[in-house]
């Protein structure tokens, strides 16, 4: 093994390890016991099974590996591994994003506090510690406003208060979630603290970016479709259907945000709303997106954000143009069902994967499971990702695929058969989206379709 071409990965999927190996890198992998696979054992040069969210366990292994076989870079593109990857970058002086900046993004309260000190237009936010805090924030910020965990992903635990009457319901849900795991144990993160934020109006987008020595390239602006009540993600489309002026405003806002929070290198996934007060950041992550967004970006722009994250520390990443040009469109559509229905079977997934315009089919629903009310991304039944000649065509094609090919068959409580449907999204882009985000049908069951989302 060549230490100068060796990467220490803190958590990874099979896909991530495989891409690192195809770049010619040697791979040292720290992997959680619940995430380890035979494929990772086969691909990684060294693999240590450990709870990589625990610094006291990670540090001694990394120190031993630093001595032999040695490594030149540490990274993670999975949410629970980001902080300890940052700590290792600091410990060994490797460059890359360190702990302070990583924590600033991972902890939503820390991000809001930091931005309040440097940005005069910062979003108003306060920590939530007691029931009466909800009434006080409503009086300060007005309604609606949002409550969210400070340390979570995939819209879990996010709630909207439309007036004082919602406070008891929201506080009860906060108490219910406190001390639980974010996706029924599999993302390894514990919900503890909660934050209140002013509500941001307007349609939502995500911005996939790559930074190198402080130069930020917006690779893609992704159109997002979310449930208005709990903000679960019901679809994505690339490139976003925006005017050039609005796209420029979003790009400029995200670049300014990355500078303010201290990002200089690596990939980021930033969520933003374009409302009456202009573009305003919801949250950001120094990792790639989930929900098959990297597949959409690769199909439309020919840029592999996962590969960029792995290659950049070794000088292997290509220099990107200031504004990559799209070629065609791509979209993710979600499969949803009625709460209380029971999944009978899944048909057509293999047939769909074999089609030329299909990028991914990820069905999380399993026979015998009961469809849950839609509260977060893990309550969906699955997703499909497709390409098309443009964004609108791809959005329509995804719906056709779920209607005609991928069939999640269910039965209602009385035994009547049915089929899950595609979540509703606007057909023509953000101009079709009313303030408060698009609507979606109630949704599903199962494990998360993408651990990074």
From TrEMBL:
Pfam families: ATP-grasp_4, LAL_C2. The keyword Cell cycle does not apply. Residues 424-453 have a biased composition (Low complexity). This is ATP-grasp domain-containing protein. Gene3D superfamilies: 3.40.50.20, ATP-grasp fold, A domain, ATP-grasp fold, B domain. The lineage of its organism: Bacteria, Bacillati, Actinomycetota, Actinomycetes, Kitasatosporales. The keyword RNA-binding does not apply. Residues 108-314 form the ATP-grasp domain. Signal peptide: none annotated. Keywords: ATP-binding, Ligase, Nucleotide-binding. Residues 413-453 are annotated as: Disordered.
């Amino acid at each position: 093994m060549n230490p100068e071409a060796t990467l220490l990965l803190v958590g990874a999927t099979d896909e991530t390890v495989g891409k690192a190996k195809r770049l010619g890198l040697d791979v040292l992998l720290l992997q959680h016991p619940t995430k380890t696979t035979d494929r990772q054992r086969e691909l990684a040069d060294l693999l240590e099974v450990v709870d990589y969210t625990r610094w006291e366990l990670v540090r001694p292994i990394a120190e031993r590996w630093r001595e032999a076989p040695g490594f030149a870079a540490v990274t993670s593109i999975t949410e629970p591994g980001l902080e300890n990857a940052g700590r290792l970058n600091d410990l060994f002086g490797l460059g890359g994003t360190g702990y302070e900046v990583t924590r600033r993004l991972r902890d939503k309260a820390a991000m809001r506090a930091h931005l309040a000190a440097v940005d005069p237009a910062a979003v108003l936010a306060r920590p939530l510690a007691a029931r009466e805090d909800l009434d006080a924030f409503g009086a300060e910020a007005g309604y609606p406003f949002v409550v969210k965990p400070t340390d979570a992903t995939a819209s879990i635990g996010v709630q909207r208060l439309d007036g004082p009457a919602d406070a008891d319901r929201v506080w009860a849900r906060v108490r219910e979630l406190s001390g639980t795991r974010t996706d029924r144990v599999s993302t390894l993160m514990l919900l503890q603290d909660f934050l209140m934020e002013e509500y941001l109006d307007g349609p939502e987008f995500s911005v996939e970016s790559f930074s190198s020595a402080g130069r930020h390239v917006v690779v893609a602006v992704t159109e997002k479709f979310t449930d208005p009540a709990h903000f679960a993600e019901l679809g994505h489309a690339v490139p976003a259907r925006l005017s050039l002026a609005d796209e420029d405003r979003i790009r400029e806002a995200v670049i300014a945000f990355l500078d303010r929070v201290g990002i200089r290198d690596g990939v980021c996934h930033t969520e933003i709303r374009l409302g009456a007060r202009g573009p305003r950041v919801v949250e950001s992550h120094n990792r790639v997106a989930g929900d098959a967004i990297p597949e959409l970006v690769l199909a439309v722009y020919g840029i592999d954000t996962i590969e960029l994250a792995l290659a950049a520390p070794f000088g292997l990443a290509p220099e990107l143009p200031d504004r990559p040009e799209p070629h065609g469109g791509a979209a993710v559509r979600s499969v949803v069902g009625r709460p209380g229905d029971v999944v009978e079977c899944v048909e057509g997934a293999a047939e769909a994967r074999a089609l030329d315009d299909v990028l991914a089919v990820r069905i999380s629903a399993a026979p015998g499971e009961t469809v849950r009310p839609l509260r977060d991304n893990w309550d969906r039944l699955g997703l499909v990702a497709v390409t098309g000649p443009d964004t609108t065509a791809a959005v329509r094609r995804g719906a056709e695929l779920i209607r005609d090919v991928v069939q999640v068959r269910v039965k209602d409580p009385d035994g009547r058969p049915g089929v899950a449907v595609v979540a509703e999204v606007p057909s023509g882009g953000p101009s079709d989206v009313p303030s408060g985000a698009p609507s979606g049908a109630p949704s599903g069951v199962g494990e998360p379709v993408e651990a990074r989302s």
